TrEMBL record:
Belongs to the beta-RFA-P synthase family. This is Beta-ribofuranosylaminobenzene 5'-phosphate synthase. Homodimer. PANTHER family: BETA-RIBOFURANOSYLPHENOL 5'-PHOSPHATE SYNTHASE (PTHR20861:SF6), HOMOSERINE/4-DIPHOSPHOCYTIDYL-2-C-METHYL-D-ERYTHRITOL KINASE (PTHR20861). It comes from the Archaea. Keywords: Glycosyltransferase, Transferase. Pathway: Cofactor biosynthesis; 5,6,7,8-tetrahydromethanopterin biosynthesis. Its EC number is 2.4.2.54.
Amino acid sequence: MIVEVEAYARLHMGLFELGQHFGRRWGGVGVSIKQPSLRVTVNTESSEQVEGIDSEEAENVVTLLCRSLGKKFKGGIKVQSGIPVHRGFGSRTQLRLALATAICKAMDVEFQVHRIAEVLGIGEVSSVGTHLFANGGLVVQLPRQANRTGLGSFIRLEFPEDWWFVVAYPGDVMGLDEQQERRLFATLPPQEPLTCMEISHLILGCLLPTLLERDLTGFGECLSILQRLVGQYFASVQGGVFRMAEAVQLLRMAGAKGVGQSSWGPAVYGLFGDRLEAENAVFEVRKHLGDNWNVYATTAVNHGARVSVRP
């Protein structure tokens, strides 16, 4: 049996409820995008080896999963394409979930994505990527009780596939890994109650309604405000509201309706109304940033990871 799983990167649009008010914390917003993506293949008939990129991470997933299931996996694993690591795309979450999904399918083991996430230690802070792996679209992770773990509740909406993102990130700069992130969160004070209220109001009163109404301008303006408020909270540990402020400004100048930084970056993005606008922006932004930067246009994905099975 051959099982193939394709999963997609996500753009993180911001965390909220970082003050543990009402005894809750860790809300977040994110959207699945077509590029970059990853593909993993599991073949139960091939030799027991792990090939391709991220092979060490793949071996760790196999070990954790088989220990939890009490079973031994026999077969080959190949990571055929991957999402750049520690650039703000949620690569580790997507890779781990894709591998675990493929292995469970190959072993004919019933599984649920939230259970896999718990076994693999995914979603300690943000579970946006896990919800997007399963569902695609735009997800709002609702704050969960501070003394509870797990994925918690979420809202999922379709994202217009005729809206375009221009994504930019440098080839030689990385974001934070999980241990660095954990240490930084431990140093940050609780977010001010008024700021938490403003962000929550912004999401409920503007971001979600404008998305449902397909109001590109309104959604973009709301996204930019959300990103500014979230970025101000993290400015002391990431060097400003945006790590790559020049790239964000170039996206604005190229006509982006809204701008943001995905997670800890360095990836930043702008929102555009159609493909032509996005492609023109790619040209302008790339011209100023140079060859060391990856700049491209992509759209949202409104479905979860794709799974295919062949005998």
